[in-house]
What does this fold into?
Amino acid sequence: GATGGGGTSTTSTSTTSSTGGAGGGGTGGGGTGGMPPVLRQLSSGLNHNCLNVAGSTKCWGRGTDGQLNNGNSNAAMAVSLGVSNVTSIVAAGFFSCGAQQAGNAVCVGSDKNGQLGDGPPLGGASATPVAVKTLSTIQSMKGGYYHVCALLTDGKLHCWGSNGQGCLGKGMAGGSVPDPSTNPVALPGKVVDFALGQDLSCAILDGGSVYCWGWNHVGQLGIGNTMNPNETLPAKLTTLMPARKVTVGSFHACALPIGAKTAFCWGYNSNGQLGDQKTGVNSSSPVSVILLKS
It folds into this structure.
């Protein structure tokens, strides 16, 4: 499977509420009246971003693979993705996705590895949103470089797209899975949070345990060793205390343990991204981030 390079896709969710008053009386002078739109979620991909504005998706940045739904053009300001009633958005490698209130989802952009989820054949791209097959109870979605995972309302995680290094959790590495309806990732519990990176996936279960699968060449699975260059099924991080949040970069990951006063990170540390003051020293086990006093 493709492995990409030079960046990552991470998704962060934030809800911004506003108490600003109505503008200009609502009848003249440019006033619009009412409350400003609520900014519900922001997602950054390899070279583009998407914003959920009160259920409507706006994207900007690179659009040459159709990921902005604006005719394969780049955009230096936000343009509409053409998807409404959005509850979860994804800006990923060269594609974008949105889960909608009804539980379904659509994707747009590159389909080189089946990441649009509309089934075979693979290849090419779609400059307009296409429906993700079969899944109808999607709660949230996140994207890596060339793969996507969706959390369903029953707590199960379905993944599709590139299976580079086994990042789809199917028990084998390589190839692509364009059909999201295949068996969910074999995890021993309900998923409450998850994150994707470059051929890497991690999830937190309802009891707080953290599992990762996919590429492991620099210890990014956090399982204490790099004996296997990849793990094609979820592997538990046995040295990490129960966590409530997980994030994934290109070749490293971090988690927020429940009740902890700092974060823990593992994997590639070429630029000090593990935060343990040991730049250049990778760690295959979670290490605590050293926080500077404010």
Notes: The radius of gyration is 19 Å.
